[in-house]
Design brief:
three-stranded parallel beta sheet, mainly alpha, 11 helices, single chain
Amino acid sequence: MDTPGYSKPDSEKYSAKTDEQIARGQLNASNYILWFVQADAGTITEEDIKFIKTLREDTPKLVIVNKADKKNLKDLKEIISKIKASLDIKGVRYVDVFAFTSRINQVENEELCSFIEADTEKIKKQIESWNRQVYESNFARNFKILFVRCREFYEDEIDEESRKLVRLNTSITKLSIEDVDSEILEPLQSMVRDAQKTVNELKDIREKLKELQDEFFTEIKFISDVVGIAMPEPSEIDLLQDNVQNPMELIAEYKKEKNIQTDPSIGDMLQSVFEGIEPVINKRPGGSEYRDELLDVILAACNVETEEIHIHDCVKNTEEYAELCKLEHESVKIGNIFGRTEEYAGIVKLQ
């Protein structure tokens, strides 16, 4: 499906057919997404990244650098590296980034032609792989999400009203001990009755919602069995990934809450220093291979000597690590009992 554009209302190209809401709705209903970036642009735009981040994260996205024949091989590889780096930094999940052109027969440079042909073959294999997959409808999953969110809303309301009820009862108890006049207590007691009534009503709604959910998925199961479509009720555990927040979003919220301003020149400097470098932070699981990989990246990108680079070396030195942490309490021990079970068990008081 070829979706419309997503021009904003203040854009000269805006029209009802290019409304970003229409494009977003169609893309979120897709099983897979091919996102084309023009080679002439040099990289993926910030607007594209922001738009992609509003789409369903679990929808596989394959990024394709189109009209790759307009660039030489070196520039094309740099464009692909920049796109990957930009997506990685912004926390956008994607399958891969490949080059493509419909004018492959007009590419005169053999190396460039071979590179584009190889990427085109990878694109075909990826699409064929998707085509072989059994389509799983998100119908039941989407409705389960709605039911869960509704239930969470009522549970939050019940918790809030219950806390209000506890506070009111606590206040009445304290005032009763002080022998306060009953006319003063009456309004509070009335508020307690109202709060209790609200809690009971919310609990009734929650139970009816649960009954409705059971009936709904029972009917869906019956209909899907009749037409031969597998559509079981999704487990709530499978929906937990929807509640996992992007770490970058958490950092942005914290900065906003604490009114922390970031110097934009730092980001520009880091982007300039590491431009063209393919991220390899999670390429190794850990240990010496991870350390060596990281050393190679730093040495290649920065004007430093090997002995100037320190990666977790102070962790092995208890005194130095404690000094770095500015620990003042002499009873605090860091790292000097790892591996000695008796001492460790004694400190944590295992019984």
